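Project outcomes to date are best conveyed with an example. Our students and postdoctoral researchers have been running inverse folding experiments weekly, and each run begins with a structure described purely in tokens. The record below, which covers 206 residues, was selected by the lab manager from last quarter's runs and is presented without edits.
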């Protein structure tokens, strides 16, 4: 009898049989094992794992920090936290110091201004007086005060009246000493007013 060979096939495991029941997994397996000029995806077990030939790869032992390094790192972190706290305190101190300096400078400026105002009031003979009129003239009796200031004011008022009379005389002279064309009255002869003399205590030129 001739030897007859049969095509044997490796039996599937239980996981493979269960996987064939899952449609998505079955499609992934068929895509991974398909033939032809198709792109075949390489199976990646862990997408987040780092390849050994990658510069960021670290061995499991290197991932952990030793006791001395942990103490140094913690000390550095505490020093940084302390430095931040001190910088915050220093910033607040500088702000309060500047605000206090500005407040004292404003108080000093206010005090100096008040002192200058008092000095100015004391130096001015007009300021600071009470129950004193603004002019040396009695508004009740219509009389000038018997003081040099009153005599000066009287002379000033007399000069105002003198200039008014002098102006009326000049207008009459320019009207040729005739009659008033508006009222028709006869103009009286011109009388030159006398110039008032200044008081003896002051020398005033009118």
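After processing, the design step wrote out the following sequence:
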């Amino acid at each position: 009898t001739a030897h007859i060979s049969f095509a044997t096939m490796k039996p599937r495991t239980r996981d493979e049989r269960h996987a064939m029941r899952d449609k998505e997994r079955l499609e992934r397996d068929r895509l991974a094992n398909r033939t032809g000029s198709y792109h075949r995806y390489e199976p990646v077990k862990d997408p987040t794992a780092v390849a050994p030939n990658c510069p960021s790869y670290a061995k499991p032992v290197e991932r952990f920090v030793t006791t001395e390094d942990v103490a140094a790192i913690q000390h550095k972190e505490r020093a940084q936290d302390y430095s931040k706290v001190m910088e915050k305190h220093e910033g607040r101190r500088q702000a309060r110091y500047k605000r206090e300096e500005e407040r004292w400078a404003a108080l000093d400026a206010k005090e100096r201004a008040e002192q200058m105002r008092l000095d100015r009031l004391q130096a001015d003979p007009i300021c600071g007086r009470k129950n004193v009129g603004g002019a040396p003239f009695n508004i009740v009796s219509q009389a000038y005060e018997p003081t040099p200031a009153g005599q000066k004011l009287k002379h000033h008022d007399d000069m105002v009246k003198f200039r008014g009379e002098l102006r009326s005389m000049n207008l009459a002279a320019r009207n040729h000493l005739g009659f008033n064309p508006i009222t028709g009255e006869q103009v009286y002869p011109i009388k030159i007013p006398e110039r008032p003399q200044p008081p003896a205590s002051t020398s005033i030129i009118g």
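Residues 136-206 form one domain. The helical segments are 14-21, 23-32, 67-123, 148-174. The training component of this project remains on track.
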